[in-house]
Prior knowledge:
InterPro entries: PsdUridine_synth_cat_dom_sf (IPR020103), PsdUridine_synth_N (IPR002501), tRNA_psdUridine_synth_TruB (IPR014780). With about 300 residues, this protein is an alpha+beta fold.
Amino acid sequence: MPKVPSVKLPVSGLFGVVKPSGPTSMSVLEKIKPLIANSCLFVEVDKLKKETGRTKKAKHTRFGVKIGQGGTLDPLADGVLVVGVGKGTKKLGNFLDCVKEYHTTCLLGFSALKMGGKPLYEYARNGIPLPRPIEKRKVTVHSLELIEWKGCEHNFRWPEKKFTEEQRKAVETALQGVEEDVAIRDEPEDATATEQTPTAFVLRMKVSGGTYVRSIVHDLGHALGSAAHVVTLTRTRQSRFALEPTEEGDQACIPWKVFEDAVKDAGQADQDGWAKWEREVLDKLEIVDGKVSGEAV
Length: 297
């Protein structure tokens, strides 16, 4: 186990979590909050003693422990999620406009556009006007590499949802003000292709803040005279926080299972009084406020 540093508690800081695919970024934070609110690592010991007997939710509300994340990952995506606690939340803005790295698996043949987190076909299906025009934005792609060509050697398949003719026309009409002569195709040009395994490939890219990976994949599909969409998306790096630290100053991230297990059962504290998840955080915590002291707690 890593040696616990001597620090003056409580501390404020930043750490990276390996978000799993499935839950939202907010739900990940909500699961972590009770742990943070009941740890002397982030809350003064006297306050913890005074709150004995109160629920974890009540303790969190009473303590007012601040916690936030430095850039949302949608439910499909996994990978680096930077978390800030206490004064560390004031540093989270630095992670919105920073270099990020992604690995994404893409399928050639059909692409589903989204707006406001809702697929365009949902707007068309429910007769809802688009909330805003699809705006162009200036971003920087530092690198874009094809790291694997899977071809048909994979288990991914075509999306099952399809437009009705009425829905297809509704989406085309909605997009007319953004792109001239837009045409929505909800199936491959080759009708027999739906019975075949789609072509897949994997990209690695380093991009600036504000970049939509799905938009890059969508544009690549069009450049190939087809369409493309994302089926897996992993953020492997956000500034200095990385899944696989390779550069000087890189910070490793904490596996989600560490927190998942702690929520179910914090377990016994070690000889120094720390739970397993607290040890992991201490090992990977970037302290924003908390001075080194002469003795361990």
